[in-house]
Here is the input.
Amino acid sequence: MRTQVGIVGAGPAGLLLSHLLAQRGISSVVLEKHSRSHVESRVRAGVLEQGTVDTLVAAGAGERLLREGLVHHGIELRYGGAGHRIAFEKLVPGRAITVYGQQEVVKDLIALDPSRVRFEVSGVAVHSLEDSPSITFDGGRVDCDFIAGCDGFHGVTRPSVPEGVLTTFERDYPFSWLGILARVPPSAEELIYAATPRGFALHSMRSPTISRFYLQVSSTDSMQAWPADRIWSELRARLETVPGFSLETGEIIESGITPMRSFVTEPMQYGKLFLAGDAAHIVPPTGAKGLNLAVADVRVLTAALDRFYGEGSSDALDAYSDGCLQRVWRAQHFSWWMTTLLHTFDTDDPYAQRLQTSYLDYVTSSEAAATTLAENYVGLPYGWGVQ
Ligand code: FAD
Ligand code: DHB
Here is the structure.
């Protein structure tokens, strides 16, 4: 098989890239190791920045998103027995987020043109990254001009770069997030980020009948330690901390535990290989940035490939990594900051706890501090940064 861009991974990054390229007359093939039903049912992110929504709409994948996505103009920070609203409409006028499940984004992108994606492909390996790249897999081979490594944090493309080329930066956190999807109406209209001495909890949603929750748990915990009764009683203990708030409970449809990690590789390219999304960087989910960063990378890569095929210039491809990393590092900082602000650390001494409360008080009482949170949360404009 021959194509212009060989894409490894049918997550949001790989699928979106394939569509944006097709719109510009550039051919691609997406190779995915899992089945279509597996990738369509993987419950993960839920918060889309305005730029992400606009990009999906421009890719032709916005019809259901615009109909079913829940537009939110604020979030609540809950701690110390009170809730504090971060009001986007006041702090960052005209900017908002949309709550819409990542697996719905994936379904919408696949439905646009399933023929470009090959599911259940095993044994993927990438070759000759310096000059004439190819991708082999069990039973086939794709020759291409470029390879996009969109295969997530545990993929094969990043480890294929020769040793010594990439520098990695990382931080592990001593806790994980236990996430559930439940068949219960949301207990509040907006997302609630709750910091408590028992640990962090997050109230989110997917629709008027489906809620999404996260709990900070120990990084050594498994789901066996968390039967449904324990999950609900812990969510109650961490969220029912303000007068008049009571949590709706019900059937848990899906659950899982995700470790918390920060990771960046530099540069995000080697020869004809370009890494995008989680293959190049991951953030702890507290800032809701991972999926949005993947979309931002893909926009930069699409423009660079378009320039190459349209004008024959590889300048923009050469600048791909630098073009992405400023946004990546801003999201790294924001995600680390939100995580530090809202979680309980075993190592916290009373001094560290007072610092955390002091910062929460500052963010919820100073317009300048609240604006810092709001503008990062809704997403900085594309092209933002030091030029
Ligand atoms: P992935 O979605 O990981 O896709 C990679 C694809 O490559 C997968 O389909 C995988 O099967 C495939 N693949 C891997 N290896 C191979 C191989 N060898 N051969 C072929 N295919 C391969 N982000 C946000 O923006 N907002 C949020 O609210 C948010 N919340 C989150 C909550 C949780 C619990 C988690 C876990 C993540 C959250 N994220 C959030 C992060 C977000 O889900 C990821 O950043 C996003 O999935 C990245 O997309 P991607 O396409 O780069 O990678
Ligand atoms: C969701 C996930 C997040 O990581 C977050 O910060 C907010 C909401 C969600 O899945 O709804």
Q: What stands out?
A: The longest helix spans residues 320-342. The mean pLDDT is 97. The chain has twelve helices and 20 strands. The CA atoms of residues 177 and 360 lie 21 Å apart.
